[in-house]
What we know:
Strand 4 (77-82) and strand 5 (85-86) form a beta hairpin. This protein has ten helices and twelve strands. By secondary structure, the chain is an alpha/beta fold. It is 26% helix and 22% strand. It is globular. The strands form two sheets. The chain has an eight-stranded mixed beta sheet with strand order 6-7-8-3-9-10-12-11, with helices on both faces.
Amino acid sequence: MSANGSGSAENLVEIEHLTKHFAVKQGVFARGHAQVHAVEDVSFEVRRGETLGIVGESGCGKSTTARLMLRLLDLTAGTVRFDGRDISKLSQRKLRPIRREMQMIFQDPYASLNPRKTIGQIIGTPFAIHGVKGAKTRVQELLETVGLSPEHYNRYPHEFSGGQRQRIGVARALALSPKLIVCDEPVSALDVSIQAQVLNLLRTLQDDFNLTYVFITHDLSVLRQIADRIAVMYLGRLVEIGESEQIYEAPKHPYTAALLSAVPRAGIDPRERIMLIGDVPSPISPPPACVFHPRCPRFHKGHCDVVEPLLRELAPHQWAACHYPLERWPMSDAEIRQAEGARREDRPHLEGAAHEV
C-alpha cells in the first residue's frame, strides 16, 4: 500500500511492502549465515511528472530501493508496479521492453562510462540493444540537448570533465525517451558550480520531455532545489514522507529534524544542531520496534523499543513513523528531547541524545 493508502492512475510507480535481504556469511570459518536487512517493508508511490527525493545517511537503503524499483535486483518480498503493471516477478526477457521506459543516471560519472568506447558508442548502445535505427543522428541530437557539441561523437570519456561526463550519462538515460529516470546521487561527485548546471539541466529536461524523477541524495540543500516530495529513510525503513516544503518547514520525525539541523544556513540566527551520538546500528541485527530508538532524542523506554511505529498521516499529505513526533519546528536540542506528556525528571538526558552542542 502506498503512503497515502490509495492507488491512482496518476501514479507512475507504486511500491508496496518492498523488502530486500542479502545473505552474508559470518564467523572465523564463514560457517554462520546471516541476513542484511537492506530494505524493510517500504511503501510509497511516484506520481507522473514529479520529482521524488529520497534522502538518508549512507547505507540507509536509498540506492537499493532504487535498484529494486528498476528490477536491477530481485525482490525478497513486496510489489513494484510500473505504469499500472506488476513487474515484481517478470523475467529478464519480459522486462526488456519495459526497461526502455525506466533509466538510471549513476553517481560516478567517471566509473559509469566505458573508457574503451567513444561517446557515440556509449549513447548509441540503448538503440542497438532495442533495434532502433538512425542511432547516429539521434545521438548527435541528444548531445546537443544536454549542452554538448555533436562533434564530440567520436571522443572518449577521458577527454571530458566531470560535469561533461555526467551530461553524457544524462544523454544515455534519455536515449529511448523513458518515462522514469532514477538519479542516484548524480551531482555528489561534482563541484558546486557544476552541480547547479546539472540540476538546471535536469529541470529543463523534465519540463521538455515530461519526465518523472526519483532523485537520491544525502544532501538536503540539493534536494530542496529539485524535489516536489521527499522520502526520508533510516536503516532500510521509510520514516517520513511528504511535500518538500512541509518536510523543510515542519518535519515530524526526530531523524528528519536532525538531518535538517545539519544543513548549513546563512544568516545571523542559525539553528541549533541536533546531535545524534553513536553509530547507525548494523543492518544485520537491526534494533527491535523503532529502528531509530537507540539514537533518538525522544526515546521512551518501554514504548519505542517495544512497539513498532507505523507510518501515519500527521499533517495533510505528510506521513511519519514516530510515536512522539515533533510538535513544531525549529526546536532546540533541549526542547526536542522533551516530548509532550513525558515524565523526564528522572532522566534529564536520554540515551542516544547529546545534551551539549
